[in-house]
Structure formats: structure tokens, C-alpha cells
From TrEMBL:
Segments crossing the lipid bilayer: 110-131, 137-162, 222-244, 259-279, 291-313, 319-340
Top-rank taxon, per record: Bacteria
Species whose genome carries this gene: Silicimonas algicola
Lineage of producing organism: Bacteria, Pseudomonadati, Pseudomonadota, Alphaproteobacteria, Rhodobacterales
Name assigned to this protein: Citrate/tricarballylate utilization protein
Keyword Transmembrane: yes
């Protein structure tokens, strides 16, 4: 008796991913590729949790698609990058709260993000007109107390939502108690972005078809390190304010600026670099129904970095008020949308790498 490996009627993403994974498991041509395939080849049968884990290990580099002999027009019609992208996005939506909003953002992300940035900026402008602040620099437009009251809950909200989401994900993929060595291994792979370097380190096939490129890996690294530097800048300013009684504004050679300016540059260049690469890439090899949400996330990251740099450049001019409102609107929108946008992929992918390190140890 032989197995029928041809696609039939449309089915759920997990079921279709399971069909394709079973074919890959029989072929094993892609064994030297990213972490997905060693994890896949360890199994003989795939539960829903196994498929979810494989999907979140996948970085959508697309090398497997261009190397595969079973892609369309072959009857097997394999498209591993696309089906895992669908499963991956569904897993974020399934574990987010409220789930309905996550699904809505994935399909109407640009409109939602744009409306939130403009709406929140308008609120800040109204607050400024109503009273403003009494401090120096930016605090002359909005007081430090008001910023803390607004942004502290906005930061805690996505953190809590993602924490419960990762908890649900960990249970779904069969995770067990973790050792520090698992975190260290996952951290190393995250920092190096090993899975975007191809099986032999030559890069991935995201934007150039069957030609390899390191551009996406470099853009991802610029975006990630830029975001982390900006976060470190804000954290250092918090420490200076509350521990050393050194409130803002800070000079160019202060720690917040030495971290924040390079961070803003990296974040802006990396994000808009990812936008350019995404426009070049074949949409059929990703989650096509969620293209708008993915693009909104990257555009929002880039605009956050760019508006911060513009705000710093405009210090001492009359443009500071409305630039500050736009920048704060972008930052607050980024925080609020984190559990529902592709920003969540960082948390889920790290959890997937921790689980993979756990299984391999």
C-alpha cells in the first residue's frame, strides 16, 4: 500500500504542513539547511505541536523552496516556506489576547498602525495645548510624570500578553523545564542569526530567487541591534533620572545619546532595508493573507527610528512639538501592537530556539 502525497481539497495550514513535512522527511535532501530540517528529520510522525514548533523555527529564508524538486508544477506541490509562514502566523494569533484583534491586524495592519499613530499624536498635541509641561527640553511639551503614567502601562501590557502567549506556546510544543545552557544556545543563534545564513553560510534566497544573498540577514541584524540600543538608551535614562537624580535633557556625549543615536540610525536603516527586500521578494512564498500586517510592522519600526532621529535633529526649533507628538505616537503604537504584530515573532522564535536546544541536548 502506498501513501497518497498529492494535495487534495483546501485544508487547514497545520494539516497541509504535516503533509509536506512527511514528504520532506522521506526525501531529506535539505538536511544541511536551517534548524527546521534537523528538527523535522528527528520525527517519524508530526503532532500539531510539532508542526507549530517547526513553523516558529523557520525564518522564511526560502532556500529549501529553490532547492526542492517537488515544488509546483510537481504533483506534490511543496511550498514549505509559505505553509510554515501560515502556521507560524496562526500560532501567534492563537496565543494572543484578544485573538480576534491579532487576526484583524495581520490583514489590516497598515491602516490600523497609521490610524493609531496619527490618533495618539493628536491626543498628545491636545495635551500640550491644554497645559504642556513645566520642565526643560521635551518635558516643556509633556511632563515627565505624564510620560511615565502613559508609557509604563503601555510597556507592561504587551509584556504580560506575550508572557501568557509564550506560556501557551511552550505547553503546545511540549516544552519541559529549561537549563541555562538552552538559553545560551538560543541566544547565540539569535545574535548570529544563524538560520538566515543558509546551510553553508552563503546567505538566503529571500529576495533574489535561486541566488544567495546576505542582505536580509544584515538588515535583520541592524534592526534588532538598533532596537536593543534604543531600549538600552531609554533604560539608561531611567537609571540616571531615578538613581542619580540626573533628569533629561542629556547632551550628545551622555550615555542615553551615545546609545540612542546609533540605535536610531541602525533601526531606521535596517527596517527600511527590510521593506525594500520584502517588495522584491515573491509573495507566494510567505503568508500572503498577512502581507499587510507584516509590512505595517516593519514600516512602524522604521518610522519610530526615523521620527526619533528627526526629533533630536530638531532640538531647539519650533518643530519639536509636533515631531515629539508623532514620535511618541509611533512608540506607543509599537508597544500596544507588539503582541499582535510580527514584533511578536522575536519572542516566539526565541522560545522555538530554546525548545530546539532542549531537544538536541
Amino acid at each position: 500500500m502506498s501513501l497518497d502525497m498529492t494535495p487534495t481539497e483546501p485544508q487547514g495550514a497545520i494539516a497541509e504542513a504535516r503533509r509536506q513535512a512527511e514528504i520532506c522527511n522521506a526525501c531529506r535532501y535539505c538536511e544541511g539547511f536551517c534548524d527546521v530540517f534537523p528538527a523535522m528529520f528527528r520525527e517519524r510522525a508530526f503532532s500539531d505541536g510539532d508542526i507549530t514548533q517547526l513553523a516558529n523555527l523557520c525564518h522564511n529564508c526560502r532556500g529549501c523552496f529553490y532547492s526542492c524538486q517537488y515544488t509546483p508544477p510537481h504533483d506534490f506541490a511543496l511550498n514549505i516556506p509559505a505553509v510554515l509562514a501560515d502556521v507560524r502566523a496562526e500560532s501567534w494569533e492563537r496565543h494572543a489576547w484578544p485573538g480576534g484583534f491579532a487576526e484583524l491586524f495581520q490583514r489590516q495592519g497598515v491602516a490600523i498602525a497609521g490610524a493609531l499613530v496619527v490618533g495618539i499624536a493628536a491626543i498628545f498635541l491636545f495635551m500640550r495645548a491644554a497645559g504642556g509641561g513645566a520642565g526643560e527640553g521635551f518635558y516643556a511639551f509633556l511632563s515627565h510624570a505624564a510620560m511615565v503614567a502613559i508609557f509604563a502601562p503601555a510597556f507592561l501590557f504587551p509584556f504580560l500578553v506575550l508572557t501568557f502567549g509564550i506560556r501557551g506556546y511552550w505547553a503546545e510544543v511540549g516544552g519541559s523545564p529549561v537549563r541555562w545552557s538552552h538559553f545560551a544556545e538560543a541566544g547565540r543563534r539569535t545574535a548570529n542569526m544563524t538560520n538566515l545564513s543558509g546551510g553553508q553560510g552563503q546567505g538566503c534566497n529571500f529576495e533574489k530567487g535561486d541566488r544567495y544573498s546576505q542582505a536580509r540577514r544584515h538588515a535583520h541584524q541592524a534592526t534588532m541591534w538598533g532596537f536593543l540600543l534604543c531600549f538600552a538608551s531609554t533604560s539608561s535614562a531611567t537609571v540616571l533620572h531615578y538613581v542619580f537624580d540626573m533628569p533629561a535633557p542629556y547632551g550628545l556625549f551622555s550615555l542615553p545619546k551615545l546609545l540612542g543615536v546609533p540605535g536610531g540610525i541602525l533601526l531606521t536603516l535596517g527596517s527600511f532595508g527590510l521593506v525594500a527586500l520584502k517588495l522584491k521578494a515573491d509573495p507566494a512564498l510567505g503568508a500572503t493573507a498577512r502581507w499587510g500586517g507584516e509590512m505595517a510592522f516593519v514600516l512602524l519600526l522604521g518610522f519610530t527610528g526615523l521620527s526619533g532621529l528627526m526629533l533630536y535633529a530638531a532640538t531647539g526649533t519650533t518643530a519639536v512639538g509636533w515631531l515629539l507628538a508623532l514620535h511618541l505616537g509611533a512608540v506607543l503604537t509599537l508597544f500596544l501592537l507588539t503582541p499582535y504584530s510580527k514584533m511578536a515573532h522575536g519572542a516566539y522564535r526565541f522560545a522555538a530556539l530554546v525548545r530546539d536546544a532542549q531537544v538536541r541536548s
